[in-house]
Amino acid sequence: MTCKRILPLKLTAAATTVAVCLLLPAVQGTAATVVTDTMTEVSSDRAPMDFSARMGAGYLTGEAHEYVYWQDQGGHTASELIWDIDSVYMFGLGGTVRPVNWLNINMDLWLNVADGDGYMEDYDWMVVGMDWTDRSVHDNTDVTNAFIFDVNVEMTMFSTGTVSFVGIAGYRHDTFEWEARGGSYIYSEYGYRDSTGSFPSGELGITYEQSFDVPYLGLGFQGDFDRLHLAAKVTGSFLVRGDAT
After folding, report:
1. CATH number corresponding to 33-61+85-117+141-244
2. Angle CA(76)–CA(243)–CA(84) in degrees, nearest 5?
3. Whether pTM exceeds 0.85
């Protein structure tokens, strides 16, 4: 990732070159989750192992942040980008293989059907110890790409006739891309927040791509009680890797 994209747009090329050497980027994001609207599943137990396939559609929502810090100023925040994903329509395919009765191998893939709506804010702190000095807001932001891949294994640890608990180990990769156009700004050019205005409507301002690679562990629960079926799982990771360009 280069820091040029994150610095205030009004910086000169010379100032940008110096800043690249002094800035430290950091990526943070909340987990984006597809809320399924429709889901179809078929299964077969005639093969040597059980197999099921599924196809579905749903909406994706989420939020991502990227921070840039001044290394020579004690970690002072230099910039923050905030990106929203708002109800992007997704199409998904998946499958499950069950080689033995205590083990499931799951794989799922989700892709956006079309560009979705988003939102972007860009904050910059050019003076140490002060509140933000520059801000731009872009309501006309499109989510141009959303890709989610998840593969995991579920191992039954305890089971009765109605309740089962499983251990989960998996890997997930997410990639999202945004394009921000137009918008408004407040800059500190000759004084504190003294310059305001708008970018030309439809003009491409910032493009951004963020990806996450997440190996994870978790626990799952399933229960069947007459006509009621309950299922829940919790997953987490300390080894999240994020990249942004």
Report:
1. 2.40.128.90
2. 80
3. no
